[in-house]
Specification:
This protein is mainly alpha-helical and 139 residues long. The protein is built from 6 helices and 3 strands; from the N terminus they run αββαααβαα. A 3-stranded antiparallel β-sheet has the order 1-2-3. α5 packs antiparallel against α6. The chain is elongated and about 75 Å long. The model is unreliable at 1-18 (pLDDT under 50).
């Protein structure tokens, strides 16, 4: 339960430092044993005395401090667009996007439309790789 609450606050605390770099919490590497230990040590009767708004702010601040202390920060480098490999052609990218869109619609890899889109995307990727390798040989 604690892990889910901390993970939920991650979505709200993601901050962008520049246009291509953003930081977020790396919850897979968090030290949850230490967080549990700190929470067990906390005197909740003393901390949560007062009205509801004050108690909530104290509780939230305790969790955020533990999050800052025991969960590492990772940097993500993305431009917001799909970064394609150098060998991938525009038509291959479009086929992959279409395949993903169709799968998102049906959510069944055995659906005929999904199978057709997967086959078309695979063919487009193979063709793009082949053309790229052919162009490398001529250079």
């Amino acid at each position: 339960m604690l892990d889910a609450g901390i993970e939920a606050s991650a979505c709200a605390r993601k901050s962008t430092t520049s246009t291509s770099t953003s930081t977020s919490r790396d919850y897979h590497r968090g030290d949850y044993e230490q967080i549990r230990h700190e929470l067990i040590k906390t005197d909740w009767d003393h901390e949560l005395s007062g009205n509801m708004e004050v108690c909530w702010n104290k509780f939230k601040n305790i969790l955020l401090q533990l999050e800052d202390k025991y969960i590492t920060v990772k940097k993500s480098y993305s431009s917001g667009r799909m970064k394609k490999p150098i060998w991938m052609s525009r038509s291959a990218v479009n086929c992959v996007r279409r395949k993903n869109k169709i799968f998102k619609k049906y959510k069944d890899k055995h659906h005929p439309a999904v199978k057709k889109a997967n086959k078309k995307a695979t063919e487009a990727l193979r063709k793009a790789k082949h053309i790229f390798e052919k162009n490398l040989q001529t250079v």
